[in-house]
Design goal:
The protein is an alpha+beta fold and 312 residues long. The strands form four sheets. Strands 1-2-3-13-5-15-4 form a seven-stranded mixed sheet, with helices on one face. The chain has a four-stranded antiparallel sheet with strand order 11-7-8-16. The N terminus is likely disordered.
């Protein structure tokens, strides 16, 4: 499949089988008239997958019939589920991650899910359970149009650039409002095992063939750059990728489901709802090892790969 993604190409496919309503000009669409479950027929699943690659993030309202079992069964239709490598699964589930305000808003910075692994998720499926009366929206940014709209000199700089992603980033710096307990929990659970992967900054999407910017909060440095130069260039690229024109904002209601192409987006929650409860559960679908525009794959840095045993 090849998608011709131009800057203002977030339009519904007039010949497609689904009722698709674009939400923003560059990214995001609501799909109506589909009841998500593990019993969906193959044609509908393929149509959902096609819409996902076209619109980058797709939304389904009124899916309150889904419970953990139903969400897991649907996720398995899209691919191989991937449990988080350090955070325990939600109670009673096989591979769902619970996002709950009682544990803090760890996702309130722009990121792509689990990029500290070489085969980070291809997609994520998020189901809303308890939603604040106001606030707690989520934003997504299109990583393909982020690359496409770079100036030619910046494209030349990033084309062969490599970045190190890690789960052992400075949590306190990225979340200055975090409590001491939240910082402690981050270190003891989220970063209990330190992962580092070197990724290309410009990744080629394995389905659409698009070039995408692979950035986000898990990036700790660019290979060959000192700290100050990295910070300046990263700031330019990250600010460009997450400009308002390149994003979509979703106002949650209980029973909503969002699915995003994790290889072609960044996202973040908006932590503007104080002490109100906000609970969602997420499934992730395993991806492949990223390959850059230069044809070079990502590589693991930590934990160090086991040495190859030589035959006696």
């Amino acid at each position: 499949m090849t998608v011709q993604n131009h800057v203002f190409a977030n339009a519904a496919d007039a010949e497609g089988p689904l009722d698709v309503v674009p939400v923003a000009g560059r990214i995001g669409a609501e799909i109506r008239g589909v009841r998500l479950s593990g019993d969906l027929d193959r044609a509908t699943v393929e149509a959902i997958r096609t819409a996902l690659h076209r619109h980058k993030v797709i939304f389904f309202r009124n899916q309150g019939h889904l419970d953990d079992v139903g969400q897991e069964a649907f996720a398995e239709l899209l691919g191989e589920p991937l449990a988080h490598p350090t955070v325990p699964v939600a109670e009673g589930s096989r591979f769902l991650l619970e996002l709950d305000t009682k544990e803090g808003i760890a996702a309130s910075a722009w990121h792509t899910d689990i990029t500290f692994l070489p085969n980070y998720p291809a997609a994520s499926i998020l189901r809303a359970i308890t939603i604040p009366a106001a606030g707690g929206d989520t934003l997504w940014a299109n990583a393909a149009t982020a690359y496409e709209t770079l100036s030619a000199p910046l494209k030349a700089i990033v084309e062969n650039l490599r970045a190190v992603h890690t789960n052992a980033y400075d949590y306190a710096a990225s979340r200055p409002e975090a409590t001491a307990e939240e910082i402690k929990r981050h270190r003891e659970i989220f970063a209990s095992t330190v992962y580092e992967t070197e990724h290309p900054v410009v990744r080629v999407h394995p389905v659409t063939g698009e070039k995408v910017l692979l950035l986000g909060n898990f990036v700790k440095g660019f290979v060959g750059f000192n700290r100050d130069d990295f910070a300046r260039l990263f700031g330019i690229l990250q600010d460009h990728a997450t400009r308002h024109e390149n994003t979509v904002r979703w106002r949650w209601a209980p029973g909503d489901v969002a699915i995003w192409d994790n290889r072609a987006t960044q996202h973040r929650a908006i932590a503007d709802f104080g002490a109100q409860r906000r609970t969602l559960r997420r499934a992730t679908i395993a991806g492949d090892v990223a390959v850059g525009a230069d044809g070079q794959p990502s590589r693991v840095l930590k934990p160090e790969p086991a040495p190859v045993q030589q035959a006696a």
